[in-house]
Amino acid sequence: MALxxxxxxxxxxxxxxxxxxxxxxxxDIVLELLDARIPRSSKNPEILxxxxxxPKLTLLNKASLADPFSNDxxxxxxxxxxNEALLIDCVTGEGIAKIGDAVRGILADKIAxxxxxxxxxxxxxxxxxxIPNVGKSSLINRLAGGRRAKVENRPGVTTSKQWVTTSIGLxxxxxxxxxxxxxxxKSVGENLALTGAIRDGxxxxxxxxxxxxxxxxxxxxxxxxxxxxxxxxxxxxxDGYDLLxxxxxxxxxxxxxxxxxxxxxxxxxxDEFRSAxxxxxxxxxxxxxxxxxxxxxx
Length: 298
Description:
Helix content: 25-40%
Mean pLDDT: 86
Radius of gyration: 21 Å
Distance between the termini: 26 Å
CATH architecture of the largest domain: 3-Layer(aba) Sandwich
Shape: elongated
Number of strands: 6
CATH topology of the largest domain: Rossmann fold
Low-confidence stretches: 1-10, 150-159, 288-297
CATH class of the largest domain: Alpha Beta
């Protein structure tokens, strides 16, 4: 699958890079929002370079959709190797209440310096960065206690910067979600597309769903078989096309002549994966680029 996001977001990365560079000096900390199902693939290396040297808190969003064992593994990984990380979910509210204390802990020295200068209680500021559709606007609305930012379940909704005041003593700067010009690994582009960071209209959803079928049979076969009432004999040794066709036939998604409506089947499969209807599935864990099977759930 050839995925080259520079064709779909012309000039967007350059604009966002300028915005981040211009505003970085105005904030005390960077909140990097990642997708808990794909923490590695959803980490924009360009943003990492732009924000180097700035205090950072990593927020693994959509945690309720990800495999809980993989979630724990990622938190342990970050504790040992990188900056502090929290599991959150902007839909369920999981972990949101911990953000304020985590930010103040990271900025404890700065807060102490402010108090020494007679600026106790000075409002802190943070920049939220992340890829499209990772939940930045939803996080802002959670922290602000209302709908302050436009929210839709599709990538590319936020197109300019906006400041929002919250009830946790933090001013938030939202930035547009953006992908980077080139993926070093094919699996990164696939994972971003599967989780909805890339618009479905840009890709062939049937090809994407075939890729998903192959990943599910490799990573969490029990969940896949159970959800679609498949036997091991019906999936073993099958490629993505055969697997998708089998799922469509099981669901009765047939057209004239008894052929499977592959488009309808593909859209259903992607929707059920993204909503965790199939189960809580992570496509990545710290021990491998796109692993996720031996997690205790799959």
